[in-house]
Design brief:
The protein is of the alpha+beta class and 157 residues long. It has helices at 18-26, 28-31, 111-138, 144-148, 151-154, and strands at 7-14, 38-39, 48-53, 58-68, 72-77, 84-94, 97-105.
């Protein structure tokens, strides 16, 4: 696949087997420990889910485009000018280490909007990865996503 031109990218090693790291993003019972607060269900290819962040009064539609077990998740999320693509790539380094790369691309808007979206996405997914690492490795909920963005900016229409 050709590398997207305008994209955000975050990556981190997680000291857990690839199947546990993969399941953390497929299964909302786990994902809610480090990212969003609610989901309408597990991720399944071809299905649309909704993810909710109670702290921001934000609900985002998520269309699952592709799932390759323990290797890749590809979604489109958002609506209108806020729609973009997110890709998770899971690489098993050994039996107890997974290197995870998250890319967010297909942003829309002028140069200033693109820069802002890429910056915010990189920040957000860095917090997601850090929260994932803390939860899977130590069962600690850092609540990074909850504190990442000013609530007054997220709840405006």
């Amino acid at each position: 696949m050709k590398e997207p031109v305008n994209f955000a990218k975050s990556e981190l090693g997680i000291r857990k087997p690839v199947n546990e790291v993969f399941e953390a993003f497929i299964n909302p019972e786990i994902t809610t420990k480090f990212w969003y607060t609610h989901s309408t269900g597990k991720l399944e290819e071809g299905v649309t889910r909704e993810w909710k962040w109670d702290m921001y009064n934000l609900v985002v539609p998520v269309l699952v485009l592709e799932i390759v077990e323990n290797q890749k998740i590809l979604i489109e999320w958002g609506e209108g000018m806020h729609k973009s693509t997110v890709e998770w790539e899971f690489n098993s380094v050994n039996d107890n280490l997974t290197f995870l790369t998250i890319k967010n691309y297909n942003f829309q808007g002028n140069d200033d909007v693109l820069v802002s979206q890429i910056k915010d996405s990189t920040k957000g997914f860095t917090f997601v990865l850090s929260g994932l690492k803390a939860w899977l490795e130590h069962k600690i909920q850092l609540r990074l996503v909850e504190d990442a963005f000013p609530k007054e900016l997220m709840t405006q229409p």
